[in-house]
Amino acid sequence: QVHLVESGGGLVQPGGSLRLSCAFSGSIFALSNMGWYRQAPGKQRELVAHISSGLITDYADSVKGRFTISRDNAKSTVDLQMDSLKPEDTAVYYCRTEGILGADVGKEYWGKGTLVTVSS
């Protein structure tokens, strides 16, 4: 059973930076594709950034050039560095993966989320 725990959210002024981290346990992290999603009030959850087990990254157009996703296979963590933050980045940010072993193949796993508020 995969377990994901996000950390690093908080209140930041426009133009500021935050670094989110997601701790992974319960499976083989190095072989798992990982994603960061966010959900703003009244909006649907959306993909922010994704990093594959092979280190291929992908970003939503709205965050390209400002956010950077990275992973540390030794620590089983995936981070999201967020720079030049805007008020519209305010949301709950979630870590997501899919199971890769046995009966878990394709099963979605989500963390509980961490709140990011961008406001002056």
Structure description:
By secondary structure, the protein is mainly beta. Helices cover 0% and strands 49% of the residues. Strands 2, 4, 5, 6, 9, 10 and 11 form a 7-stranded mixed beta sheet that branches. Strands 1-3-8-7 form a 4-stranded antiparallel beta sheet, with no helix packed on it. The mean pLDDT is 97.
The gross shape turns out to be: globular
Radius of gyration: 14 Å
Separation, N- and C-terminal Cα atoms: 40 Å
Low-pLDDT runs of 5+ residues are: none
Output the structural class: mainly beta
Helix content: under 10%
Mean pLDDT: 97
Features:
49% strand; 4-stranded antiparallel beta sheet; mainly beta; 0% helix; 120 residues
Secondary-structure topology with pairs:
Layout lengths: L2 E5 L2 E3 L5 E8 L8 E6 L6 E6 L5 E3 L7 E6 L4 E6 L8 E8 L9 E3 L3 E5 L2
Parallel strand pairs: 2-11
Antiparallel strand pairs: 1-3, 3-8, 4-5, 4-9, 5-6, 7-8, 9-10, 9-11
In short:
By secondary structure, the chain is mainly β. The chain is 0% helix and 49% strand.
